[in-house]
Batch of 3 targets.
Target 1
Amino acid sequence: MSLFPDVQRKAQDEISRQVGPDTLPDFDDYDKLVYVQAVVLETMRWLPVAPLAIPHRVTRDDEYRGMLIPEGSTVIPNTWAILRNPEDYPEPERFNPDRFIKDGCLDTSVRSPLTLAFGYGRRTCPGRWLSSASLFMIIASTLHTMDIHPILGPNGEPFDPEKHAFPGIKLNFDKLPCAVTPRSTKAAELIRKYTNN
Ligand code: HEM
């Protein structure tokens, strides 16, 4: 959000319009918060938690597009490349939730990152529904009440998370600097009300 202030503002405008200032979003607001749903999808696409999913061993000979995958082979899915395939996601480097929206609704003809970012086949992540619902709620509640600002580097350039990623089975960062401030006095009251502070 600190890198894409226009996305942040658009999501905040939608939440303000649909939820109003007196309460936090809840799951009854889900269908109305189409742009926030698209932010969740784009978040899972742009920097997937498991860019190479989990390696699997093939238990019997298999064939893919005429190529033999012999029993015992280890298959490592390149989720990162699939989620940045320009044929499915034009300008893939751009964080652009609008790619998932058509005529004010989620565009089901665009491949959902939720079918990719949680692994594949029988061992697909069983936590995917919990995770995507939690992400929706965390993103909606945070953006409704707080502004996320960039912290500029020594040369005045914004922080680029990709430059701070380091390898591992999941995507790791050595730091993710940003500043988070309440959007208004009313928003600060809401935060206190819901966190008992
Ligand atoms: C954004 C959050 C999450 C992401 C991106 C994620 C991603 C993944 C991926 C890529 C796999 C490997 C699937 C495969 O083998 O192809 C996996 C497996 C698994 N995940 Fe998640 N996960 C998330 C959250 C969770 C949560 C919240 C839970 C539990 C409540 C969970 C439980 C599991 C379990 C138990 C497996 C192993 C499944 C098996 O091997 O049969 N995950 N997850």
Target 2
Amino acid sequence: MHTLPQINLYTHGTQWSASHGHLAFFGAYATIIIAMFYLGVQRWRSGVWMSGDLPGNGWKWKWALGLLNLGMIGMTVSMLVSGYVQSQIERAIEGSTWMGYFAAQIHPWFVQGMWWREAFGVMFLVGFILLVWDLLTIGKGESRAMQPEVSEN
Ligand code: HEM
């Protein structure tokens, strides 16, 4: 619906777009790139066994996964709430005027959305640090070779 001109007139370039863009990029590209990083790290460690017996039951990647996904959903839902306020106040009520822009920017619901976005951003950052730490350490000290690829014959 964002694509329809009659709706885009109100939502274009608001936090609504930023919410859509970041959530879509995370789902479509970031997640698959993270998966590729793990495959790359396994090869980099000369193809060691990485799927079992991880120290601490693999707590680092599990917490990274949870914090990154919850953080991203929290950030984009918060931005969406702010985007609704912007579309309604700045665009629909105030008619995209200079003062309308500021009326929306100082509205408590807009401001709250921005603060929630920041809080979830901190959650995302913690997940990101854990992800990098996990990528740098996973499979370290492992000597078993990964399972051979199943051959066609
Ligand atoms: C892999 C899927 C997608 C990705 C990665 C993506 C990404 C983005 C990004 C980065 C923006 C710019 C956001 C900004 O200006 O802050 C955007 C805007 C937009 N996207 Fe997507 N998008 C995806 C799918 C879609 C789909 C399926 C639709 C519609 C059916 C759509 C409709 C739009 C529209 C209309 C805008 C412009 C918003 C505006 O007027 O400000 N997108 N998208």
Target 3
Amino acid sequence: MTKRIILYILALTLLLSACGEAPASSEAGSASAAEQTATPGTTAANSGTDAETTPEATHLQPEEGWQVITIQGVEMLWDGYRVKEPQVDLDIDSMHFSDFGDDFFTEVYPVEIERYTLCEGEIMESEVLHIKGAEEGPVMYIVAGIHGDEIAAWYAGRLLRNVTIKAGELYVLAPANANGARNRTRYVKDRQDMNRSFPGDPEGNEAERMAYAIYKDIERVKPFMVFDLHEAILYTEGRDFLGSNLIYTKLTGIEDLYFDMFFATEDGEICSNPYSNNGPGPIGSINNTVANQLGIPAITVETFRGFAIERRVHDQLDIVQYAMKYVGMR
Ligand SMILES: [Zn+2]
């Protein structure tokens, strides 16, 4: 308990110092975004030298080529196509569930852990963690960060490697696109988009070989569902946008879970804002392919990259935790 409080204070302190070091424009950005993430008081630290000046001091200023827009109460910069991602100050190697909320995976269960590697020795090599609970139960497979620049997706995935479960089995692949994650790019290499490469090809390019390895592993494991964690950065004025979205192609066997989860976001029970539903996943995506070719339903989670990283990771964790509780894994 005490440890959690200390971690929380530590996280808050980091957030405060991060605000202080950021350049003027993104400082305001992270402060206004922080207001949305249940960390009251952080804006007070956004004082600088002109704490007494007008309220506009906390607003974003337009930059050349960028205009200020407000989405779900958060100001962000937009170039007419995509939004500018707020500065990210989290250290991936020292994150804890408690940095993102008090009620994430607090109960600890005894588990067995197995590890194995996909595409060993190649640039896309990544480890799958297989976590087994003490009781029999459902098998869930999480693929996080097929696009390496969608960092909240694989940050959440990295955290989810620490989950313990009382029942069933959990497979976590994070980041699914290791080379893309290293280079903060969507692609595996050049312009190879893994999420248009499924079911992959063992003789193909890097994205196709990794897609094939993931596809075959899911086929072998036969989970009741796949979570496919992503993020969105595009925004079209006056239209629904892909951020805050739960995408599916088929929901075979998980209809109740999906719609209860969707309505839980609508009701404010989970996540920082209501999510939209969307589908089917594009041809060649993991979502579309495992649903249509393996009969395994997949939910693609899209958080919006205009929001603060803490909010995005929080939402990803909230959704996965909801599903695990729903099916009795936790
Ligand atoms: Zn993506």
